[in-house]
Amino acid sequence: MAYERAEILAGAAILAVAIGFTVYAGAGTNLMQGADSYALTASFRSIEGVSIGTDVRLAGVKVGTVTDLKLNPETYFADAVISVRNDVILPIDSTILVSSEGLLGGTFVELQPGGMPDALAPGDEIEDTQGAVSVISLLMKFAGGGEGDAAAGSATP
What we know:
It is a single chain. The chain is of the alpha/beta class. It is 31% helix and 29% strand. The protein folds into two domains: 1-32; 34-139, no CATH class. A hairpin with a 6-residue loop joins strand 5 and strand 6 (107-112). The N and C termini lie far apart (98 Å). Residues 148-157 have low confidence and may be disordered.
C-alpha cells in the first residue's frame, strides 16, 4: 500500500515536470502563438537553412518566427509565412533576407525596415526579398575570381 502511494506521487511529479517543460519550451519557441503577433508572407528564390520555428530578427533582436514554408508550384519559389510581434510596425518597403550567424553559425531571417510612411498590414507580402547565399558558392566564386583577375592583370602591359 505504501509502495502504491509512492509510485503515484512519483508519477504525478514526473507528469508535472513534463507539462512544465512543454509549456516552457512552447513559450520559448512561440509555438503558442496568440493575438500578440501578426502574419506576413514573402517569396524567396532559396530559403536554404530556414525551417518552421526559425527566428525572425530586426536589428539582432528576435521579433518573430517562421510559421510556414511551402514550395510555390507556379514560380518554383519558397513561400514563407512569418509571425511578427504586434509592437513591430514595418514600412511597406521593408526587406526580408536569409542571414547567417557566421561561417559555422545558424541561419535566421532578418527584417530591414524601409522608410515609407505606410505600414504593412497583417497578411501583406514583403516583396523585397533576398534568399540564402551558399557559402560554398561564394568560396568558389572567390577562388575563381581571384585567378581571373591575376591572369587579366598579367596580360596588361
